[in-house]
Structures are given as structure tokens and as C-alpha cells.
Specification:
Shape of chain A: globular
Strand content of chain A: under 5%
Order of helices and strands of chain B: HHHEEHHHHHHHHHHHHHHHHHHH
Strand content of chain B: under 5%
Distance between the termini of chain B: 25 Å
Helix content of chain A: over 70%
Largest interface: A-B, 30 and 32 residues
Oligomer: heterodimer
Distance between the termini of chain A: 28 Å
Structural class of chain A: mainly alpha
Number of helices of chain B: 22
Number of domains of chain A: 1
Largest sheet of chain B: 2 strands, antiparallel
Largest sheet of chain A: 2 strands, antiparallel
Strand order of the largest sheet of chain B: 1-2
Radius of gyration of chain B: 21 Å
Chain lengths: 488, 486
């Protein structure tokens, strides 16, 4: 490679941010154009990355490695494999959509778009970093812009949600930092390089403790069942672009951490912890679905559905078999597209009706038919209708779990299937109340979807259908790397 | 003899500048006031230059081994002098707004320069007497400076409290030193270490250990570690803000520089002494927990910073509990980061205080909109205080915690990281006031008046805070070379 494409993708948004910061206040309308341009270039680069990615190769590609802090072996080490590359693409795509959906923002647009780009750097960095310290820096870099996005542009209860998000995730990540340091000293390699630490042979007893510390960081981010309480608040209060990126990318950072770090670096502990994670995931699946059923707020419903869907991701990871983890990674990508789209749709209808309460909506099929149609389409994708992308992830996870053959795994599958049924229930019931039924009298003169809005949704629709019909190309890319990580 | 004088040229320049400033302000009078700060700054710059010219990286000892010139003292001299330069820059605009300081400007800068001299001597101390003298040279001027606002009750209270408790701590420390002398028959730090190691005194001799712990109490008092912190909140709140900045930065450098010399040279191998290590761990644990918890309900900014500095002292003490050369370098990194972000925070706070005449956190309300640049810098300083990347505080915490985990103090590190999560709450509370609370005061104080020099210093400190993480190698190399060996 002639040029460091990963560094460019990662830090290009920072350049955009600086340009936006330099724009004088009277020309603040140009901020969104700069942000759009920057994010489109990022998307272009990530597409180029995908095209030039060699799917037959399982190891890291486009690696960049420079000595950063020499005395303690901290490297500036970037690289992508089949697991991180789709995530990079997803991040770039959702950033573009986040910019588009915030097009009409009037409150301090300069700061908004600057923060959005800073957030993009943090998110991409997490997925491409191959050094623990670098990973940690990007991981924490995400918090500050997200705090401000929620706190400045959020809805009524935003201050509470923002600080809760900040404190909660920081709590997890500092424990993760201790875990990282313990790995550094107990591996005997004295390096922070994630690849070199794969199968480092840390004593199993110690592995369990380290796994717990990392688990706290990752599980809070995912979030897994008992640690999920920040999620509904943060998702609900955040502005649309914030919710899209939270659900679409930030949650995946957690499950990505499990796949990239916990499993390869601490294989024995991962095996010991797997049943506990599986049980928590199933509780999350059922709990999230039940909680979605009773939500009155449309955005909160989508937020809780994330808890349920991320439960499938974690279930797949906990099985430690190639099929299940393939399903988990696929589910990560699909969940990012589908839930991102649901949040976009909720944001669009909120702009028109200024309410997110399900009981205040109703009969929207007649008023905004295109929106209603896309909502129905996305809901079907979300509940796992075959032919749409949501199906493959959940199917592979459950298939992989069942294939394990143990009674435990089978029971897990039986219980999780209830979650799928409940998923269909809350989504269909929501559709029934929102787009069918008697129209609310107060809602009239709702604008149809504009071209811009349709353009925002279109890429995701295409992706959902494409992957739903023909997941093989994406799965091939994922599969090689998953096998590689599992040491097969 | 002449060699002896050469070794202390940097200190002599600072002390001489102090006397010069004092004399000129007496004989020339008010006309000289405008030149005092520039003259002091010039003295500091000359002193920095003299360190490079005469004895940088040149290991020697003077005055019968009571004064040591080595990488360690060179590092701390430069570090102190640069902090002092920034401090003088900040004071330049502050004193113009303070009636009392303006009236006695010559004495003010004289006392500040004496504190700087004391701090520099502290890092170069080779024996107990020198340590004691330099600690007093730092302390006595700060007692006076804390009470500089003569007619202000709070300032008086803070000075009296600081003085009485400070003298008590000095007395305990002197008593501790005498016990060490009694047990070993030596006052020279290297000799003390030689005697204790040769005779295995650290395991058996309780007079020596009691002496060491009593001396530690003295240092802990100066550093503001729990449970010897009672003076800190009142003194910080009552002193003029510029002096609070001095106490939290330069006086802190002095305390830790002295403690490093004392422990790593005088008690070389103290990590094997259970009592000393346990004592330091207790100090660190209590400081990190109580400092952070007590900071939560504070409404006064300076009180908040008092507890915050107690908490930071707790983190730095983890490095002492570890007692390895690696830990020393972590302490240096942490100190550099801490001083930079602390000076930055106080620089912004002084601007706010000057315009809005209030030291409450509420006074920060709305400056995010009126003064975006210094507010963004303030976010950098505060987030760095929490220890989040990519700012200097992260690098400090990373190395301190790394040293802790390396030496089986993982449980202490876990408490350390969890308490730093608590700290997020009160630092973000300031950010919240800056950006999300509307200012209710009169309209002419809405925009903070920010003199160019202060803004420049704030910008430099913010860049430094960022640079420490982006190009850490420079700072790591500096600190690695500076470690003090037996």
C-alpha cells in the first residue's frame, strides 16, 4: 500500500472538525456542507477499503505499525480484518446518514457537526486499533462528544441521561484499563499489542479475574442485562443522529471488544465465563423484548429492542463456535443498519408531530404513506423476516447455539426463540398502533417524506435487502477472520 | 569552595532576584511596580539558562554533601522554574485586580521567589537539615502569602490555620528527623541509607521506623494527604486565588520532590519495610477516597480544587507505595501533568473570579457561550484531571496505575480508578455550569474579560496537556533520565 488508508479514514474527521471550528460564526450554515463532504469522503474511502480488502486472507490487512512510546512498548498499530472492516464501513455510512438527518438543525450547527466528526474518529479508531492503549484512547474519545451531543441537543431529560451515560461507561472502561494493565504484566511479553497477546498463555486463574475486568467495560457498553439501564435514557434523550450512532456503532464497540480482545487473549477464561454470558444474554433477550412491549414512547421502544437484539449478539459470542460468532458479527452489522434506520424514522416523525408517544400517533399510513411503509419494512427486518437482513444474524446465532449439542445450549435456544416471538409481538403491535388505527385528530398537514429524507433512508434499505437475499459475500469476509480468531 | 558556589548558582539567581525586587520596590517605590513581574520573570529565565550552562547532567555534590546536583535536581529545577514562569505570567494580570497585593507588590514577588528557591533547594537536598530548611523556606512565605489580604477575615483565618498546623507538622517532622539521627548517627541521606542497609535497621529498629513515619507525616501535611489535610480546604478557600494556585502547584512540587529524595535516597529499599509501605498505602487510599467524596458536595470552586488536589495527592502516593525506579518516573509524569492542568484550571478560574467577583462554581455559568476558547481549554483541563485520554492526566494515571499493577497493588489501583470515576461527576459539574446554566448576574459581567497574556498561557497549557499524550516520548525520556538513584 502506498498510503496509510486506515490512518486517513480515522483522522480525516478531525481535520474536518478543525475546518468547521475555523468557519466564522456568520457562515455557520456551511458547517453541514463541510461535515457532509468529509463524511462522504470517509464513506468513499471505506468503500475503497472494502473493495481492496482481500476476503481470502484471514489475518490483519492494511496494517500500520509505528513505535509510539518506546520505553513501554506502546505502538501506533492499526489494521482491519473481516470483523472490523464491516464495522468501519457501517460507522462511515451511519456518520453520513447522521449528518443528513441533522441537516435542518438550527441550534449551534457548527458545534454539532464538529462533535459528530470527532465522534466518528473515536468510533473508527476503536475498530482499527490493534494496540491496547490506542484502543483505550479511542474508546474513551467517544465519550466526550457523545456527552455533549446528548446534553446540548437532547430532549427534556437530557442532562440526566448524558451524565448517566458518561459515568456508567467510564465506570466500565476504567476497570477495563486495569484489566489491560494486568494483561500487560502477566502475559510475560510486556507488550500492549493485541495481536501479539493472542493466546499469550496467562495463568487460567488470573485470566478469570482479567476477564471480569474487561467484561465490565464491554458488557456495560453492549449493554448486557443488568448493566443496560443507561441505554434507554441515553437513546431516548439523544438527538436523532446521536441515537443512530449510539445504537448503530457504540453498542458494537462492546461486542467487538469481546471478539477482538476477550476471546483471543483470554481463551480459557472465555470458556469458563461462556455459560454465565449466555444466561445473561438470554435474560437480556427476553427482558428487552418484554420491556419493549410496555413502552409508551416509540423511541424508548426501539431502545429496549436494542437490548434484546444485542442479547443475540452476545449469545452468539458466548458459544465460541464459528457459526455462532459469524452470526453474532453479522447481527452486529445488521442491527446497526436496522436499528439505525428505526431511529432515523422515529426522528423524522418526531420532527413532524413533536411527539413520540405511541398513543398520540395513529393512522399514519394515510398521512405519510412512504414513511409508514418504510417503518413496516424495517420492523419486519428487525423481527427477523427471512429475506431481509435481520433474519440471517439471529438464525446463525441460534443455529450455532443449537449445533453445540449440549442440553444447556438447547434450552438456551428454546428460551431465546420466545424472545423472537415477543420481538414480533412488540413490533407488530407498535405498527398496528402507529400506522394503522384511527388517526389522531391533532395530527394534520403532516409533510410527506422529502427527497433528502428518502435519500437518507435509501442506502440502508438497499443494504437490508441485499444482505437479506444474498449474505454470502459479507459472511465470507467475516468467516475467515472468525475462524482465525478461534484458532481454527 | 568555588565549586560549591557554582552548584547553587540557579538558586542564588532566584534568591538574588527576590532581594533585588524587594530592595528596588522599597527604594524606587510605586514607579517600579510595573517592572516587578518582568524583572522576576527575567530572573527565572536567567536561572533556567544557568542550569543549562553550569550543571545540567553534571553529577556533583557541594557543601559537604548536603547539596546534590544530579539529573534529578536538574529536572526539578527546570520543572519548578517553568511552572514559576507560568505562575508569574498569570499573576501579572491577577495582581492588578487585587487591592492588597497591589499595595505591597515588591514583598509579594519577593515571597513568591523565596518559595521557588525553597522548592529548587528541596530537590537538591542531600541531608536532613537541608531538607528541613528548604521545606521551611517554602512554608513560611506561603503562610504570609495566604494571609496577604489583610482586611479579609477568610484570608486571615486561612493564614492562621495554615501557620499553626504547618508549624505543628514541621515540629513533628523535626522530631522524626532527630529520631532518624538518633538511630543511625547520620544526617546525610546517603549515609543514613548505608547505615540502615548495613545493619538491617529497617526491619528491627523501631526508633528509625517511627522517625521515618513522623517525617512522612510532615511531608504528607505539605502534600495535603488525608488524614493530614485539614488545613487544605480552609486555606485554599481563604487565600487569594493566585496563592491557592501557588500552594497547589509549586508548594506541591516541593513536597513531592522532597519526599522522593527522602524516601528513595535516605530510605533506599524502604519497599521492604512493611510499616512505611503500609503507612503510605493508607495515606494514598484515604486521600483518593475521601478527597473525591468530599469534593462532590462543594459549591465553592477553590474548596473543590482543595479536595481535588487531595485526591491527586492520593494517586501520586500510589507511586511512592510501589517504590521502584519505574514508579519514580510515573510520579514525574503525573506531577508534570498535574501541574499543567492545575495551572490551567486556576488560570481560567482567576479570569472568571476577576470579572464576576465570585468564587462559586455557579460563577462559571454560561461562559461556554461568551468565551468559547477559554471554555474549551477548561474542558481540556478538567477532563484531563479526570484522567481521560487523550489528555495529560491520562498519561499520568496510566503510568501510576501501571506501576501499581506491576507491583501487586492491583486492589489499590482498582480503588484508584473507581474513585476517578467519582471525580468525573464534580469536574463535569463545572462543564455543566459553563455550557448549560444561564448566567443570572448583571449584563456587564456576562463576558469574561480575558487579557491576552492569560489567554496565551491558557492556550500553551492546553496544547501541553494534549501534547503529552500525542508525543509522550519526549516527556518519558525526560522523566526516565531524572530518576534518583541511591
Amino acid at each position: 500500500m502506498g498510503f496509510n488508508i486506515l490512518s486517513i479514514i480515522t483522522f480525516f474527521p478531525i481535520i474536518g472538525m478543525i475546518i468547521i471550528a475555523l468557519v466564522p460564526n456568520r457562515a455557520e450554515k456551511s458547517a453541514k456542507w463541510i461535515a457532509l463532504l468529509v463524511s462522504l469522503i470517509m464513506l468513499g474511502l471505506s468503500i475503497y477499503l472494502w473493495i481492496s480488502f482481500d476476503p481470502s486472507q484471514a489475518a490483519m490487512q492494511f496494517e500500520e505499525k509505528y513505535r509510539w512510546i518506546s520505553g513501554v512498548n506502546i505502538y501506533y498499530h492499526l489494521g482491519v480484518d473481516g470483523i472490523s472492516m464491516p464495522m468501519v464501513f457501517l460507522t462511515c455510512l451511519l456518520t453520513v446518514l447522521g449528518v443528513l438527518v441533522s441537516w435542518n438543525i438550527t441550534q449551534r450547527p457548527k458545534v454539532f457537526f464538529a462533535l459528530l466528526l470527532l465522534l466518528a474518529t473515536g468510533m473508527i479508531g476503536v475498530f482499527v486499533a490493534l494496540d491496547f492503549i490506542l484502543f483505550y484512547i479511542f474508546w474513551e474519545l467517544v465519550l466526550l462528544p457523545m456527552y455533549f451531543l446528548i446534553a446540548i441537543w437532547g430532549s427534556a431529560n437530557r442532562m440526566y441521561a448524558a451524565i448517566k451515560f458518561f459515568l456508567y461507561t467510564l465506570f466500565g472502561s476504567v476497570l477495563m484499563l486495569v484489566g489491560i494493565l494486568m494483561i500487560y504484566f502477566n502475559s510475560g511479553l510486556a507488550t500492549f499489542d493485541i495481536l501479539e497477546l493472542n493466546n499469550a498463555g496467562i495463568a487460567p486463574n488470573l485470566q478469570n479475574w482479567i476477564f471480569f475486568l474487561l467484561f465490565m467495560g464491554f458488557a456495560i457498553k453492549v449493554p448486557m442485562f443488568p448493566f443496560h439501564t443507561w441505554l434507554p435514557d441515553a437513546h431516548t434523550e439523544a438527538p436523532t443522529a446521536g441515537s443512530v450512532l449510539l445504537a448503530g456503532v457504540l453498542l458494537k464497540m462492546g461486542s467487538y471488544g469481546f471478539i477482538r480482545i476477550s476471546i483471543p487473549v483470554l481463551p480459557e477464561a472465555a470458556r469458563d465465563w461462556a455459560p454465565a454470558i449466555a444466561i445473561l444474554s438470554v435474560i437480556g433477550i427476553i427482558y428487552g423484548a418484554l420491556a419493549s412491549l410496555i413502552q409508551k414512547d416509540l423511541k424508548r421502544l426501539v431502545a429496549f429492542s436494542s437490548v434484546s437484539h444485542m442479547g443475540f449478539v452476545m449469545l452468539g459470542i458466548s458459544m465460541l463456535t464459528p457459526t455462532a460468532i459469524n452470526g453474532a458479527v453479522l447481527q452486529m452489522f445488521n442491527h446497526g443498519c436496522i436499528t439505525g434506520m428505526l431511529f432515523l424514522l422515529v426522528g423524522m416523525i418526531y420532527e413532524r408531530t413533536h411527539t413520540r408517544m405511541i398513543e398520540d400517533l395513529g393512522g399514519l399510513a394515510n398521512k405519510v404513506p412512504l414513511w409508514a411503509g418504510i417503518l413496516a419494512f424495517t420492523s419486519f427486518a428487525s423481527l427477523g423476516l427471512p429475506g431481509l437482513s435481520g433474519f440471517w444474524g439471529e438464525f446463525l446465532v441460534l443455529f450455532g447455539t443449537f449445533n453445540k449439542g449440549t442440553t444447556f445450549a438447547k434450552v438456551i435456544v428454546y428460551v431465546s426463540v420466545i424472545g423472537i416471538v415477543l420481538g414480533a409481538a412488540y413490533l407488530l403491535w407498535m405498527l398496528q398502533r402507529v400506522i394503522f388505527g384511527k388517526a389522531n385528530e391533532k395530527l394534520h398537514d403532516l409533510k410527506r417524506l422529502s427527497w433528502l429524507e428518502f435519500l437518507t433512508l435509501a442506502p440502508l434499505i438497499v443494504i437490508i435487502i441485499l444482505i437479506g437475499v444474498y449474505p454470502a459475500p459479507l459472511l465470507n469476509i467475516i468467516n475467515n477472520s472468525v475462524n482465525y480468531i478461534l484458532g481454527m | 569552595m568555588s565549586v560549591d558556589i557554582i552548584s547553587i548558582i540557579p538558586e542564588l539567581i532566584i534568591a538574588g532576584t527576590g532581594l533585588l525586587v524587594l530592595m528596588l520596590s522599597v527604594f524606587i517605590g510605586k514607579k517600579f511596580d510595573g517592572a516587578i513581574a518582568p524583572v522576576s520573570a527575567a530572573g527565572i529565565i536567567f536561572s533556567i539558562a544557568s542550569v543549562f550552562v553550569f550543571n545540567f547532567y553534571n553529577t556533583s555534590s557541594a557543601f559537604n554533601n548536603s547539596f546534590l546536583t544530579d539529573n534529578y535536581s536538574s529536572f526539578f529545577r527546570i520543572f519548578t522554574l517553568i511552572s514559576a514562569l507560568i505562575f508569574i505570567g498569570l499573576s501579572h494580570s491577577y495582581v492588578r485586580g487585587s487591592v492588597y497585593i497591589k499595595r505591597h507588590l515588591g514583598e509579594f514577588y519577593f515571597l513568591v521567589l523565596m518559595v521557588i528557591t525553597g522548592t529548587m533547594l528541596m530537590s537538591a537536598s542531600g541531608d536532613l537539615v537541608m531538607l528541613f530548611i528548604s521545606l521551611e523556606l517554602v512554608s513560611i512565605p506561603t503562610y504570609i502569602l495566604a494571609g496577604y489580604e489583610k482586611m479579609n477575615e477568610k484570608s486571615n483565618e486561612s493564614a492562621v490555620k495554615y501557620f499553626i498546623l504547618g508549624v505543628l507538622a514541621s515540629a513533628i517532622m523535626a522530631y522524626g528527623f532527630s529520631m532518624i539521627y538518633g538511630a543511625t548517627g547520620e544526617i546525610n541521606l546517603r549515609e543514613i541509607a548505608r547505615v540502615t542497609i548495613n545493619r538491617g535497621l529497617l526491619d528491627t529498629n523501631f526508633i528509625l521506623i517511627t522517625g521515618a513515619i513522623m517525617s512522612l507525616i510532615g511531608f504528607a501535611f505539605k502534600a495535603g494527604a488525608v488524614p493530614f489535610h485539614w488545613w487544605a480546604p480552609d486555606t485554599y478557600e481563604g487565600s487569594p486565588t493566585i496563592i491557592t494556585a501557588l500552594i497547589t502547584t509549586i508548594a506541591k512540587i516541593a513536597a513531592f520532590a522532597g519526599l522522593l529524595r527522602f524516601l528513595f535516597v535516605g530510605f533506599n529499599g524502604f519497599s521492604k519495610s512493611l510499616w512505611i509501605v503500609l503507612f503510605i498505602i493508607a495515606l494514598s487510599l484515604l486521600s483518593a477516597i475521601l478527597g473525591n467524596l468530599m469534593a462532590l458536595p462543594q459549591k465553592n470552586f477553590k474548596r473543590l480544587m482543595a479536595y481535588s488536589s487531595i485526591a491527586h495527592a492520593g494517586y501520586i502516593l500510589i507511586g511512592f507505595a510501589v517504590a521502584s525506579v519505574d514508579a519514580q518516573f510515573a510520579i514525574f509524569i503525573y506531577l508534570m501533568a498535574y501541574i499543567a492542568m492545575n495551572l490551567g484550571v486556576f488560570a481560567v478560574a482567576m479570569l472568571v473570579e476577576r470579572t464576576r467577583k465570585s468564587e462559586d462554581i455557579a460563577a462559571f455559568a454560561g461562559i461556554g457561550h461568551t468565551n468559547p476558547f477559554i471554555s474549551i481549554c477548561m474542558i481540556i483541563f478538567l477532563i484531563s484531571m479526570v484522567g481521560l485520554p487523550p489528555f495529560a492526566g491520562f498519561l499520568g494515571k496510566l503510568f501510576i496505575f501501571k506501576a501499581g499493577v506491576e507491583n501487586n497493588l492491583t486492589w489499590l489501583v482498582i480503588i484508584g480508578v473507581l474513585t476517578s470515576v467519582i471525580s468525573l461527576w464534580y469536574y463535569v459539574n463545572i462543564i455543566k455550569h459553563m455550557f448549560f446554566v444561564k448566567y443570572e448576574g448583571s449584563s456587564d459581567t456576562v463576558k469574561i474579560r480575558a487579557p491576552g497574556l492569560s489567554v496565551f498561557i491558557i492556550a500553551v497549557l492546553a496544547v501541553f496537556t494534549l501534547a503529552m499524550v500525542i508525543v509522550p516520548s519526549v516527556f518519558i525520556l525526560l522523566s526516565k533520565n531524572a530518576a534518583v538513584f541511591f
